[in-house]
């Protein structure tokens, strides 16, 4: 029996339409972009010539297994297009990312990309971000002090743990604090404030980085556009 594709698969696969011969492609992380990477693997096998920059060890492993040529971020002068998922995204394309712990590399790759396409299922769309806990990457040296600073400002955060109940470590061997906010009144203000706290390496607020959102909705892919490519 043929079963229908999930919304994630519909959006993830559709995004590969943007990828053409000769492009440097940023590959995000997660269960939606998984479908993008799988489809890209098939296209590469059929002769598509691209180079890809990966945003996590998980994506690197998947891309390698599919024969997608990888290059490190430092070895490219630009990325033509990056495809990545999101945990929540609002109508201004402000997003929360990092549910899978890859926010630091994802933000670097998005920042050096000419165009960022976000692939999501319909549950990720929201009018106001903040329901999803905001991931904040911190250096282990300072995590307790960062927690204290957040608590002093009324922000409740928990240290992310792995399956063994040990602190989860990112690809950069940092820790993640998940901030339970409920709703974020001013994402830009919060982003600036977090950026100013020593010990915080990066946070999962993506502001003015996403150009286009591809949303899987039932069995269709809706494309939302916001602004010019960089
Ligand atoms: O760190 C993980 C990334 O930011 C993901 O892109 C995000 O968590 C969305 O992942 P998924 O597509 O699995 O919901």
TrEMBL record:
Substrate binds at residues 29-32, 84-87, 97-100, 124. GO terms for biological process: D-ribose metabolic process; pentose-phosphate shunt, non-oxidative branch. Keywords: Isomerase. It holds the Pfam family Rib_5-P_isom_A. GO terms for cellular component: cytosol. Pathway: Carbohydrate degradation; pentose phosphate pathway; D-ribose 5-phosphate from D-ribulose 5-phosphate (non-oxidative stage): step 1/1. One of its GO terms (molecular function) is ribose-5-phosphate isomerase activity. Its EC number is 5.3.1.6. The keyword Isomerase applies. The keyword Isomerase applies. The active site is at 106 (proton acceptor). It is an enzyme of class 5 (isomerase). It catalyses: aldehydo-D-ribose 5-phosphate = D-ribulose 5-phosphate. Catalyzes the reversible conversion of ribose-5-phosphate to ribulose 5-phosphate. Homodimer. Belongs to the ribose 5-phosphate isomerase family. HAMAP family: Rib_5P_isom_A. This is Ribose-5-phosphate isomerase A. It comes from Thermoactinomyces daqus. The gene is rpiA.
């Amino acid at each position: 029996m043929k079963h229908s594709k999930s919304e994630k698969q519909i959006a993830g696969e559709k995004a590969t339409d943007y990828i053409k011969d000769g492009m440097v492609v940023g590959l995000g992380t997660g269960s939606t972009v998984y479908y993008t990477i799988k489809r890209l693997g098939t296209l590469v096998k059929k002769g598509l010539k691209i180079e890809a920059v990966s945003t996590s060890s998980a994506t690197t492993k998947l891309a390698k297994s599919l024969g997608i040529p990888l290059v490190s971020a430092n070895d490219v002068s630009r990325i033509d297009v990056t495809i990545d998922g999101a945990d929540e995204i609002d109508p201004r394309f402000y997003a929360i990312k990092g549910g899978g712990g890859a926010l630091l590399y994802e933000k670097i790759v998005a920042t050096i990309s000419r165009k960022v396409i976000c692939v999501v299922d319909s549950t990720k769309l929201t009018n106001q971000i903040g329901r999803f806990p905001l991931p904040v990457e911190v250096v282990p040296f300072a995590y307790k002090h960062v927690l204290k600073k957040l608590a002093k400002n009324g922000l409740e955060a928990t240290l992310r743990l792995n399956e063994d109940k040990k602190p989860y470590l990112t690809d950069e061997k940092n820790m993640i604090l998940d901030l339970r906010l409920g709703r974020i009144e001013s994402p830009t203000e919060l982003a600036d404030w977090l950026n100013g706290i020593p010990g915080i390496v990066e946070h999962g607020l993506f502001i003015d980085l996403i150009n286009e959102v591809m949303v899987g909705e039932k069995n269709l892919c809706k494309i939302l556009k916001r602004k010019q490519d960089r």
